[in-house]
Specification:
Layout (H helix, E strand, L loop, with lengths): L1 E4 L2 H13 L6 E4 L2 E5 L7 H23 L6 H15 L4 H7 L4 H15 L2 E3 H8 L1 H36 L7 E6 L3 E4 L8 H7 L2 H6 L9 H7 L3 E5 L6 H10 L3 E4 L7
Parallel strand pairs: 1-4, 5-7, 7-8
Antiparallel strand pairs: 1-3, 2-3, 5-6
Helix pairs in contact: 1-2, 2-3, 2-5, 2-7, 3-7, 4-7, 7-11
Protein name: Sporulation protein YtxC
InterPro entries: Spore_YtxC
């Protein structure tokens, strides 16, 4: 079986991939093409499928992002492609719910197997262009979702940076705040006295809610930013909850997280 490449660069890519997986296969230059002559088709189906997933997938996504979505910055493209990779590997379940799951290896391996069975001499470009059309369409579907997610993550990071800047310029109104996020949310002062809702609301800087009313949580984030305490001791079992992660991102070294406590009655 011959696998034909039109460029030496691509032939070297596959040869390097083979070597990383302890397969010693060399290509030969025949006229204007570069050819791998492989002894048995079945032995190479899996490694060719992995080559497409781990090498060609990224190249395809870079090209689509650059040519169709006009992402000229390579670092931005890499971040979006990383989201697609996580979706393909089964992570990012909230995003996969929007696209549907795929068995990437099975999809690619089946296409490779059908292609290798079609002839004893095949061009990799033909495999990528024609036999992997369903796979490429799936990647583009994932890409649309990944781009939206990337934009949201960028917007979220800008929001976090804005609040950090606000906090940096804010004079602390309290030295320590104890905060419990469990079944209920409760604030306590540095002497562990419960703070009433009216007391907390009076401390809120109304400018915060005017700047970003959609994102700024008026029950927790706005009061804490307004108090700008030197230290926040957070008691919670929900260290992966979005609100808790946002608090950690904003307050950073000011935040200490401890297990929940039970109030004495």
């Amino acid at each position: 079986m011959d696998i034909i490449f039109l460029t030496e660069e691509e032939a070297i890519q596959l040869q390097s991939f083979f070597l990383k997986h302890d397969v010693d296969e060399q290509f030969a230059k025949i006229q204007d093409t570069f050819v791998f002559s492989l002894p048995e088709k079945e032995c190479y189906m899996d490694i060719l499928a992995h080559f497409i997933i781990h090498v060609k997938r990224g190249e395809f996504l870079h090209k689509i992002l650059y040519e169709k979505f006009y992402y000229e910055n390579a670092e931005e493209r890499e971040q979006i492609i990383e989201i697609v990779s996580e979706m393909c590997s089964g992570k990012r379940e909230e995003l996969i719910a929007l696209t549907g799951k795929i068995n990437e290896l099975e999809l690619v391996r089946n296409a490779v197997g059908d292609f290798l069975e079609s002839s004893d001499s095949v061009m990799l470009d033909s495999l990528l262009t024609f036999r992997l059309k369903e796979y490429q369409e799936t990647l583009i579907r994932f890409l649309h979702v990944a781009i939206d997610e990337y934009k949201m993550e960028q917007e979220y990071q800008m929001f976090i940076n804005m609040l950090r800047e606000y906090l940096k310029d804010r004079t602390p109104r309290m030295r320590t705040v104890h905060l419990s996020i469990d079944e209920d949310i409760n604030f306590y002062d540095e002497n562990f006295r419960a703070m009433k809702k009216e007391q907390i609301l009076k401390m809120v800087d109304r400018r915060l809610l005017a700047i970003h009313p959609v994102y700024i949580d008026s029950a927790v984030i706005a009061p804490l930013l307004s108090m700008a305490p030197e230290k926040i001791i957070l008691y919670t079992p929900y260290d992966e909850k979005p609100l808790v992660r946002t608090l950690i991102n904003i307050f950073e070294e000011r935040m200490i997280i401890l297990p929940p406590f039970k109030e004495s009655k």
